[in-house]
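pasting for the record
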Amino acid sequence: MSTKPPSTLTINRRALLIALTVVSILLATVLVGGEAYARHIVSRCVSTQFEKEMGSKIDVSFGAKPMLITWLDGKLSSIRVDSDDTKFGPAVGMVVHSKFNDVEVIDNGRGGGVIGSSSADVTWSNDGIRQTLGGLVRDVKSSAASNMLTLDVLGGLAQLQVQPVIKNGVIEVETMSAQLLGLGLPTDLVQGIVEVFSKSLQNYPYGMQPTEVKVTDAGIAVKLKGGRAELPAATDGTDATCS
């Protein structure tokens, strides 16, 4: 039984198929490598910009859009920024989960950019509040039922009850009661504590403003919203992270 040698047409088809397969593999490798590199550069640069405003180390994640395209057009549909130790003003230990929409960066962030809108959920624990308010406050307790926080001051000899409220677009901490062994606390002492407390709840980045503040059994929870805002350009000291 004889076998016929493959025809020239069959050999050409096989050669073409092999060539297309090799090209496809090479193209996929280039795209995967390019995507990884672009994601690394964009993520590092954008993270640096947001860290400057958030005041702490953050975790950044992006939408489904390939970073290779973002590297070319500078547009991100959304950025999620999470931090377990954000410092807004004098505050210590704030946990923030935020989202920034329709972000457009210039030169991968070296030239700054624009944020279309933003939102954030901020939680501040009783212990974080205690650390922020310093040595005068020994302990902080909060009650969702009463919507108030009780601060033990002067070594626990006195108690200060406060309530955070939104007034004219900012959070203010109001004194509900202040007593030392049944007597009123010194005004200067109360005012100093309340001022630090209020400032900790009034310093938010990118023009974000509070839409809700409530006391929980674990501390304070704040919801923030923001509109169009500028993303600052990288300084000379951070340019290396964008290249």
